[in-house]
Amino acid sequence: xxxxxxxxxxxxxxxxxxxxxxxxxxxxxxxxxxxxxxxxxxxxxxxxxxxxxxxxxxxxxxxxxxxxxxxxxxxxxxxxxxxxxxxxxxxxxxxxxxxxxxxxxxxxxxxxxxxxxxxxxxxxxxxxxxxxxxxxxxxxxxxxxxxxxxxx
Length: 152
Hints:
7 helices, mainly alpha, 9% strand, 3 strands, 3-stranded antiparallel β-sheet
């Protein structure tokens, strides 16, 4: 949604929160995530600026009456992936990006567990981390997102 693209502390970010068209899996799923610089270079914020309200991609529709927008994205993504990779696409899906980002943050950047969980919306296992302190601020999350590889 248009209102889910924010600029906080000079950092463009996605604000993941429940809306009328999106539910969240759990409480930690509600979070703010900086937008990758490659998306910014491709003109994402210019596209967002053209949308005054509602969905930023209004052509994206649910596939079935009870289907979600993420179902539609996943379906379309798999069609494109299969057209490009053929049988090599069988074990890949849209959720594979989360696995890739987790591995990049964990092994390449050696990002501490708490910040990884804050970025990815995972539940926090440590009682101390769950009860005390605040979420990792956007200025500290930005370099982690910026460190992720570009798509092309």
